[in-house]
Amino acid sequence: MYELVARYFLACCSDDAKGSETIVKLELGGEEFSLTGLVIHELNYLEVYVYEKWSDKDIPSFVLGEKLKPKSLTVDAGVTTAPELLTERDLITLMDKNGIGTDATIAQHITKIQDRGYVTKGERGFPKCLLLVVKNNNPAKWETVLRQQNWG
Predict the structure, then answer these.
(1) Domain around 115
(2) Of 54, 31, 73, 104, nearest to 96 (Cα)?
(3) SS3 for 52?
(4) How many CB atoms lie under 10 A from the CB of residue 9?
(5) pLDDT of residue 138
(6) Short-list 139, 137, 132, 99, CA closest to 118
(7) Residue 49 near residue 73, CB atoms below 8 Å
(8) What does each of the 152 residues of the chain score in pLDDT, given as a tens digit?
(9) Residue 21 resides in a domain
(10) 122 within some domain
(11) Structural domain count, the chain
């Protein structure tokens, strides 16, 4: 505990860390690719306060308009999967965290969207996009989003 407090104090006395976000857009064979990362110029307080990191995704520096020649190209096969569904408990926790309803009304919100046919509660739970839909509180948007996802 002493080390945490000492490092925090020293970090407060240190200069701010300096860096810049880099967004690299590449075009290769008619396809566009992008890469986002953080280039750290000066660590400063981050050298002292090791409990905070800016980015785990450091990328090299690039110059605007720079042309790159790839050393190798590979194509990896993969499959996407649908996001996991929320359990009712997870949905209630997220609604509470995002300020949607009160303890007394959260169950009413869930019942209302089920009664209106926007979503049905299956064995696996509720779609994750439901939280966004409920937070926006726009029934027309609910129907659009849920139809696009084939959930309503």
Answers:
(1) 88-148
(2) 104
(3) coil
(4) 12
(5) 56
(6) 139
(7) no
(8) 788 888 888 889 999 988 878 788 888 888 888 888 887 888 888 898 888 877 657 777 778 888 888 788 788 888 888 777 777 777 788 778 878 778 888 888 878 877 776 666 665 666 655 555 555 555 555 555 555 555 44
(9) yes
(10) yes
(11) 2
Q: On the CB side of 124, how many CA atoms lie within 13 Å of its CA?
A: 7
CA angle 124, 127, 132 (to 5 degrees): 155
Task: Report yes or no on 11 lying in a domain.
Answer: yes
CA 33 – CA 130 distance, rounded (Å): 30
Residue 120 located in a structural domain: yes
Q: What is the DSSP letter of 86?
A: B
Residue 106, Cβ neighbours under 10 Å: how many? 17
d(CA 85, CA 124): 6
Kindly report the number of other CB atoms within 10 A of residue 115's CB atom.
8
What is the pTM for the complete model shown? 0.35
pLDDT of residue 152: 43
Task: Give the model's pLDDT for residue 15.
Answer: 92
User: SS3 for 126?
Assistant: strand
